[in-house]
Structure formats: structure tokens, C-alpha cells
Amino acid sequence: xxxxKIRKVGNSAVMTLSTEMLALLDAKEGDTLYAVRTxxxxxxxxxxxxxxxxxxxxxxxxxDENRDLLQALA
Length: 74
What we know:
This protein has helices at 19-25, 50-65, 67-73; strands at residues 6-9, 12-15, 34-37, 43-46. The chain is α+β, with helices and mostly antiparallel strands. The chain has a single domain, classed as Pemi-like Protein 1, Chain: D (Ribbon). A two-stranded antiparallel ribbon has the order 1-2. A hairpin with a 2-residue loop joins β1 (6-9) and β2 (12-15). The model has no long low-confidence stretch (mean pLDDT 87). This is Transcriptional regulator/antitoxin MazE.
């Protein structure tokens, strides 16, 4: 378990990510993190946009289902 404190900076609340946390996320300064609420009420931090990942997965299914048609159109 890694602990992080929330502190006030101006009108915002900020959580500082330790080097260890960044390494676990495979993230670096300047990257964007996405917080997703889990079914059990927790938060999951992700370095990839989950909405984009879902859209790409759906597109992959459509392309697989229509591969012959798409090749004929290409």
C-alpha cells in the first residue's frame, strides 16, 4: 500500500505522486491520468483513456465482423 496526502494549492486540492507510484502506473511528469470509479466504490487510476479504449475495442469487433467487406472497399 502506498500512501499519498492531499494538500491545498491555490483553489485546488493536489495529490503528489511519489516516484514509486509513477513507476507502478508506468507514468511520468506531464502524462494524463484517468480516474475510474470501480464497482466497489474505489478509484482506479489509469494512464490510458478508458472511453477511448472501449471505443477502439468496439471498432475492432466491427472490423473483424466485416473484414471481407472492408478489404473489398480498400
